[in-house]
Amino acid sequence: MRINQITLSPDELPRAWYNILADLPESLPPPKNPESGPDRFETLQKTMLKTALEQEFIKERWVKIPDEILDLYIQAGRPRPLYRALRLERALKLPENKIRLYYKREDLSPTGSHKVNTALAQVYYAAKEGFEAVVTETGAGQWGSALSYAASLMGLKAIIFWVKFAHDWKPDRRTLMKLYGAEVYPSPSDKTEVGRKILKENPNHPGNLGIAVSEGLEYALTHEEAVYCLGSVLNHVLLHQTIIGLEALEQFRKIDDYPDIMISCLGGGSNFGGFVLPFIGEKLRRKAEKDTKFIAVQSEASASLVRGEYKYDFADHAEMTPLLKMYTLGHRVEMPTIYAEGLRYHAAAPIISYLRNKGIVDAVAYPVDEKHVFERAKLFVQAEGFIPAPESAYGIAYAIDRALEAKEKGEELVIAFNVSGHGFLDLFAYRKILFGEK
């Protein structure tokens, strides 16, 4: 019998998050205020968690995970398995053991995605800091679901501003958030000044993550009992997500293998960063076993790392955040809607952007029609047996395409990719794109 699942016990769960800022060859370009207007740092201090802001600029390589969060991680099913995709290898007719495919299963969380890793941490800190409610944005709905779940466990209220396009075609995920007790509003909404202004200009605006971030920040600013929690982009979010890559490192050591290429989808960067940053850290410290390549997979709708400029920009539509040095398309860019809504953000995380600028991270983008991506996801479903989220399908598509390219060239290759979430609540998108049904 060939073992295709590599597991860790709860005793082997990493006890600290990895902070890549300690290993960068130079300091990350710091956030800054624009030339005019209010102090954006003052706004953050009024709206965000004190602990999160402290972790944003921490210098230590390892940040201890509180025991209470470790307990929550274990309850949520960590550690998560790494799989050898043997059936997918056979379906692709890859030469045996010459091209090996592995994937990490973050879809096995209670809400179906990797977002739980930072949601549990942020809500734990929110409760410790005395807040009664957490408020946030969400694109695909995975982050909103995760924060609602974490808030429910810790007795806090959750308020979710959900990008309208996704909100309207995902009623079942909306139900999931409400089951956890969350209040869910389509964004742009009539609950905030920024939302009302956009709706006045365009009552049918489909929304985007930049707008939803602005609404979440404004709500937190005007409600003292609430604190804003962010699902991606900022350093502390990627820090919490490194639990994924730290587990994967140990799992590869267990089987005496190591990836040549690591692949994952990227919108803001939390999933991609969480998966690859511990491996990039080994590379920066010259401890890596191979010269691993790191590929972020995006949509042409929002291909910040492919078409964006590396410059200072706001993280939100209403310009409430400080300016961050990122690959950006512009914080008010109009982006076409796609079913992988979690990828439709105008910029990439400062850490990922820095690594892209230094040539350590590369990026590719697939067409807006998403046909190829969903066809590759169907192949994966039929070989491996479970349904990935539309966002995760992007990473899967590139892993398959790269494996087939390696087969054609006669290369030996170890490919690792992260399945960031499941697609059980995204079947409408599969039905629409693959089968042409309404």
Number of domains: 2
Task: Name the structural class.
Answer: alpha/beta
- Highest CATH level, the class of the largest domain: Alpha Beta
Shape: globular
Low-confidence stretches: none
Can you give me a brief rundown of this structure?
The chain is 42% helix and 17% strand. It is of the alpha/beta class and 438 residues long.
Structure in words:
This protein has 438 residues and is α/β, with parallel strands linked by helices. The chain folds into 2 domains: 16-65 and 115-235, Rossmann fold, CATH 3.40.50.1100; 77-112 and 242-435, Rossmann fold (3-Layer(aba) Sandwich), CATH 3.40.50. It has 18 helices and 15 strands. The protein has helices at 40-47, 50-56, 67-75, 86-91, 116-128, 142-153, 164-169, 171-179, 193-201, 209-222, 235-241, 243-254, 270-284, 304-307, 350-357, 371-384, 390-409, 427-435, and strands at 5-6, 16-18, 62-64, 82-84, 99-105, 133-138, 157-163, 183-187, 226-228, 261-265, 293-299, 309-314, 323-328, 361-366, 413-419. The strands form 4 sheets. Strands 1-4-5-15-10-11-14 form a 7-stranded mixed β-sheet, with helices on both faces. β12 and β13 (323-328) form a beta hairpin. It is globular. The termini are far apart. The model has no long low-confidence stretch (mean pLDDT 96).
Task: Give a topology summary.
Layout: E1 5-6, E2 16-18, H1 40-47, H2 50-56, E3 62-64, H3 67-75, E4 82-84, H4 86-91, E5 99-105, H5 116-128, E6 133-138, H6 142-153, E7 157-163, H7 164-169, H8 171-179, E8 183-187, H9 193-201, H10 209-222, E9 226-228, H11 235-241, H12 243-254, E10 261-265, H13 270-284, E11 293-299, H14 304-307, E12 309-314, E13 323-328, H15 350-357, E14 361-366, H16 371-384, H17 390-409, E15 413-419, H18 427-435
Parallel strand pairs: 5-15, 6-7, 6-9, 7-8, 10-11, 10-15, 11-14
Antiparallel strand pairs: 1-4, 2-3, 4-5, 12-13
Helix pairs in contact: 1-10, 2-11, 3-5, 5-6, 6-8, 11-13, 12-13, 16-17
